Structures are given as structure tokens and as C-alpha cells.
Amino acid sequence: MSRTPPHPTREQIELPMVLDCLSDPIRLAIVYQLAQQEHVSSELCCGDFNALSGKSNLAYHFAKLRECGLMQTRVAGTNRFVRLRREDLDARFPGLLDAVITSAAKDADRLHLVSECEGVKAD
Amino acid sequence: MSRTPPHPTREQIELPMVLDCLSDPIRLAIVYQLAQQEHVSSELCCGDFNALSGKSNLAYHFAKLRECGLMQTRVAGTNRFVRLRREDLDARFPGLLDAVITSAAKDADRLHLVSECEGVKAD
DNA sequence: CCCGATGTTCAATAGTTCTTGAACTAATTG
DNA sequence: CAATTAGTTCAAGAACTATTGAACATCGGG
């Protein structure tokens, strides 16, 4: 379980799979949250998304996001860090990711998305 | 059956539904075909898509495209004309439709999309 | 070495989606 | 009015999706 899971190559990334992945509210929220703080850090750890659903359900959605090429997973000790594959996506589908993020931001309330600097609860 | 079917208002158009709609290969092909000849005519009639699938399956996909706000259907005698709701989509999700069309065009072969001036078979 | 934390995997379930063909409706044409 | 054309609606089936909880694996720390 400790090895890095498989990722598609850039060329293997398929538009319908990407769109389907982004069409699920939980996965869209994950991608949005990653994009919102890309300028702070490109990575978040899986646990940072625990507010969105149960852990096993999140693992399912992480796998989907990884398999369709939207995210990369890095194993570090007992944690896994995920990040958007922005370079690959921008090369493959120019403007798509940004258009989705921007559109999601416009509907953040309706989509129950966490805006930047929110949702980081002090312990 | 003859009345114009219901369409969502611009504000009712939801991002996840739009992305989900576009993630189906047949629906993506429909949208792509409409976009490819938007500069010739904004409308096509349902029968122009018969190459993509059977009629009842197309009716199912047309309904989905209409219900999510991607297309508008106009009834004219025994025909129905469909067109992209470009103004509404661009207002709601700026750049999204164009990014999807451009991305689809790049993968036209892989996605089995009909390029412009193709698929118009003389009788 | 055992504990707790982090995440994954598995099995089961409820619900959804796509596809097909047959029956239907509605307008047009002879 | 009968026949044709265009497209929808309905019912049924196969396949897939999301969600849940329980069991499991792995790492790091006392």
C-alpha cells in the first residue's frame, strides 16, 4: 500500500473522463480547494478534505481524480499529499481548468465550496 | 408533444450538470457539431445527428442537453431545431464552452468527432 | 514493540445512466 | 383520409456510481 499509485501520462488524459470527474460535487470541491491555495502551496494532504465526506468515500474520489489525470498523489510516511496536475492539464486542455475554477468560484455558495481562508479551523 | 419543451433559465444553469452533460461522448459530439458550424447557422435539426446514434437514444441525449441548459430546442412543424445557448453559457461560465470545444477539437480523432465540412453526405 | 493516526481496500447496497426496440404523436404530402 | 416523415415516450435491462462501514496496511512515536 505504500508505493506511489499509478497515474496516467499526460497524453493519456482524456477530456470526457476529466469532465466527468469534475462534474461530481465532492470532486469539484476537492479540485477547487486545491486551486484556491495553489499560490500558497501546491499540495494538500488527504486529511485536509475530511470535512467533505467520510474517509473511505474520499479515498474513492481521490482515486478517480488520480486515474483521470487531474491530481497527483505523493506518499510521504503516513500521509498522502495531493496536487493538481496543472502543467499537464493546461498543456492538454488550454484554459479548461481555469474556466472551471472561475465558474465554480462564481457559484461557490450554491456549490457549498469553501472559500479561501475559510475552513481552516484552529484546533 | 408539439409545444416547446421546458428550458432552465440562465440563472438555473448549474456547473456540475453542464460538466456531466459534456462528459458523455455522444453529447460532446452533438455540442461540438453545433459549435463547428455556429458561424454558418446557429441551428441544426435533430436529424442532422442521426449518424451518432439511434433516434430514441438521441432524443434522450437531447433532453439531457436541454435540461442542463446547454441547448435550446425550437419546434417547427415536424422538425425540431436545436442550438447552443452560447450567450447564457458565456455569461454564466465565461470561457468554459470555448475551452471545451477547443479541447475537443484537439482530440477530434480520438473522440471520433466529425470535423467541419465532413459528414455532410450528398444524397 | 505496541498504539494511534492516516488512508486504503473490500463488500454490500441504493440509485442512476445509457441503450434498445416498440408504441406513440404530430405535422406534411399525395 | 392514408401514408410518410420526424421525433418523443415508455419499459426493460445491463452497467456503472456513490456511499457506508468494517477490516486492513503502514508509518511514526512513546
Give the mean pLDDT of chain A: 93
Q: Most extensive chain contact?
A: A-B, 26 and 26 residues
Strand order of the largest sheet of chain A: 1-3-2
> What does the main sheet of chain A amount to?
3 strands, antiparallel
Unreliable spans of chain A are 119-123
**How would you name the oligomeric state of the polypeptide chains in this document?**
homodimer
> Rg of chain A, please?
14 Å
Strand content of chain A: 5-15%
Characterization of this structure:
Two copies of one chain form a homodimer. By secondary structure, the first copy, chain A, is of the alpha+beta class. Chain A is 41% helix and 11% strand. Chain A is built from five helices and three strands. Chain A has helices at 15-22, 25-36, 55-67, 86-92, 96-106, and strands spanning 44-45, 71-76, 79-84. A three-stranded antiparallel sheet of chain A has the order 1-3-2. In chain A, a hairpin with a 2-residue loop joins strand 2 and strand 3. The first copy, chain A, starts with 14 loop residues before the first helix and ends in a 17-residue tail after the last helix. Mean pLDDT of chain A is 93; it is low at 119-123. Chains A and B meet through helix 1 and helix 5 of A and helix 1 and helix 5 of B. Chain A binds a DNA duplex (30 and 30 nucleotides) through helix 3.
